From TrEMBL:
Taxonomic source organism: Rhizobium loti (Mesorhizobium loti)
Pfam families in the record: Lactamase_B
The Metallo-beta-lactamase domain, residue ranges: 44-231
Keywords for the protein's UniProt record, in alphabetical order: Hydrolase, Metal-binding, Zinc
Protein name according to UniProt: Glyoxylase-like metal-dependent hydrolase (Beta-lactamase superfamily II)
Family the entry assigns: Belongs to the metallo-beta-lactamase superfamily.
PANTHER family according to UniProt: QUORUM-QUENCHING LACTONASE YTNP-RELATED, QUORUM-QUENCHING LACTONASE YTNP-RELATED-RELATED
GO molecular function: hydrolase activity; metal ion binding
InterPro entries per UniProt: MBL_superfamily_lactonases (IPR051013), Metallo-B-lactamas (IPR001279), RibonucZ/Hydroxyglut_hydro (IPR036866)
């Protein structure tokens, strides 16, 4: 199997999006390793293509032109990776925030993946997906999935709720290697591995998001898994290790 990281672009966010326990705006001085761009946190926006030799499963699709103009480069990334869009038959979402789902439709209004046969949405977020007017043509095509369900022979889902009610991690297994494609478990990698208690303003349930982050990081560290994150610095793939305080991320 081949997994390809595809960069949809990036988004700059104010520091106040970071929250301490109790939804308290992050007031600590940022550690030196947290780099800012014009005073903002720059988050990469990544999607991941899983090629089993027959078909390609795409995890998340980026934002297209639904949000900031610094995103919407998934088609360009696919071309760069020499991935034919007609081979993308399954798309599965980690959750239904707009920077993960709107790449279904290109900026010019055409379908991004004309040969799509399966569109998988977390069951608990099916209503949220169907509330997106721009994606109306896909509403009836969306198929719900539950945590613990197998997407294919090599891909299964793991509950990771908190950032959103149905937020899901995908465990990809091939021979003796495992990759966790974990969506928005981490937004600011330069801070949240070392201090996993720090949450994000847009977490639907910050306490649950914190618990899921600790659980998934421990799963990755204790089992030697690779991880791939939607907002880890591109290409967004590496390994997680336990540290004296929190965890440590080593990118590929």
């Amino acid at each position: 199997m081949t997994v390809t990281s595809l960069r949809d672009g990036y988004v700059d966010m104010p520091i106040r999006r970071l929250r301490q326990p109790g939804n308290i705006v992050f007031g600590d001085k940022l550690p030196s390793q947290v780099a800012l761009v014009d005073g903002a946190l720059r988050l990469s926006v990544n999607a991941f293509a899983i090629d089993d030799g027959d078909d390609i499963t795409l995890i998340d699709t980026g934002a297209s032109n639904a949000w900031h103009p610094t995103m919407g480069h998934l088609p360009e990334a696919l071309r760069e990776a020499k991935i034919a869009i007609d081979r993308v038959r399954t798309i599965a979402f980690t959750h239904t925030h707009l920077d993960h789902i709107h790449g279904l439709i290109l900026a010019d209004g055409r379908d991004g993946f004309p040969q799509l046969t399966r569109l998988l949405v977390p069951r608990l977020e099916l209503g949220m997906f169907r509330a997106e007017a721009r994606l109306e043509r896909f509403h009836s095509r969306a198929q719900p999935f539950d945590a613990g369900q197998r997407v294919s022979a090599h891909i299964e889902t793991i509950a990771a709720a908190g950032h959103e009610v149905g937020h899901t991690c995908f465990r990809v297994m091939s021979e003796d290697e495992t990759l966790l494609i974990w969506g928005d478990i981490v937004h600011v990698p330069s801070l949240q591995f070392d201090r996993p208690e720090i949450t994000w303003e847009f977490d639907a349930d910050q306490e649950e998001a914190r618990a899921s982050r600790l659980q998934i990081m421990a799963l990755a560290a204790d089992n030697g898994c690779y991880v791939a994150g939607a907002h880890l610095d591109s290409p967004g793939v590496g390994r997680v290790f336990r540290a004296e305080r929190g965890f440590r991320f080593e990118p590929l």
